[in-house]
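Q: How would the structure tokens look for this protein?
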Amino acid sequence: MNNDRFFTGFFSARPLAASLMLLLALPMSGLQAQGLKPSGMLRLPDAPASAAAAGRRGAAPQRQADFIVAVVNSEPITNNEVRAKLVRTELLLQQQGGALPPRGELVREVLERMISDKAQLQMAQTSGAKVDDNAIEGAVETVARQNQITVDELRRRLKADGIDYNQFRSEMRDELLVRRLRQREVEAKVTVSEQEIDQFMRDQEGKTEGSALALNLAEILVAVPENANPEQVAALQAKALQVLERARSGSDFAALANEVSASATRSNGGQMGLRNADRYPPLFVQATQNLRAGGLAGPVRSGAGFHILKVVEKRQAGAADAVITQTRARHILLRLSPQLTETAAIEKLAGFKKRIVAGQADFALLARENSQDGSAKEGGDLGWVSPGAFVPEFEKVMNGLGPNQISDPLVSRFGVHLVQVMERREAPISPRDQREMVRGLLREKKQNEAYLLWAQDIRGRAYVEFREPPQ
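A: Here is the predicted structure in token form.
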């Protein structure tokens, strides 16, 4: 792999949909941002309280006869599918502390999202995109790790909630397929010119000294159950304080997030990504407004629980002494070819990891002998890099590792990697770093805009027929 291509300046990746998170669905607050407006054509019969609410009362949700709600390019979406998605969406909104919209509005938004997702999946299936079983198993293991359980326990919990494991794997395969199509059709085509960076920086010069150019926060969430009593809340607050003290005593924040956090950001070292401050919850911005990069705040209470926050990066106009967290990592890259499939590459790198962890092999030596990019001669060492230097699928995994930790094999647009974080440091923001931060912000904005247009185009070209419920 050519390092010039690898250091693309991609900054953030659209996360996998919540089928990759145990019993969660994507938040509906993102629907309007993606241009997926409720159609107003759907009429479902009034539903009883959600399955989750029924379960809290000790009563099983009522089983109803199924029927087709909509047809997307000849493929049906059924009433039971919509209701299952609706229950998971309500659970997620409650866990995030969000307010539930009126049920009729939420049903329409859920259905519109399902229509858009199905149209995108149909395109992915006809595009030639492939996802092998190893990639799916890796995603299953990620789900289990995010929930601090084993894969066997994950299967038991899915079964207890009435979710078929094979169907769960099938949904994850579909999500991975669509993700790869988006990477190819949207993300990989977005570029940011030097002129656009110059213009953005000129625009920033006219803003007040306190205007944040970019903010990247990391969080550790100690979740508080919805119906927790005062004693439980006090115990969880005490746990959050203990975690904060560990972070202040020098424990690696990314490792703590991976160990403790109940947030979906745990696999990314708790990092929520570089963005304008107004795109963070005001509660988080207020708690960290007087902190420099590296500073810690919390526990901050929200509807979801107690948050410990770390300022990873903070850049304000006129703040010449701002710093960022840099990472030094190394990797082994295997390029895919007719002679080396994705499955074979994953198995080979998994074997390398097993040998390294057992002390039977040296990472640098294996990189020199096997890695297929310019870093091989340096033992895979990629040097010190600032956030946004790598493609998002690589950087996300790297950010979730503590020093000396080795990843599982990960698939990127370049091939399959084995990654090890060697060390991290705080460094002043150089003019080059500033430009890369701006490049990342502009790229994220342009990717979101391109994705919105892409999703709208696919949705607009799909034949959708809404069906009336049986009388």
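The beta strands are 68-72, 75-78, 212-223, 296-301, 305-316, 323-334, 381-385, 410-412, 415-428, 464-466.

Residues 1-62, 208-212 have pLDDT under 50 and may be disordered.

Upvote if useful.
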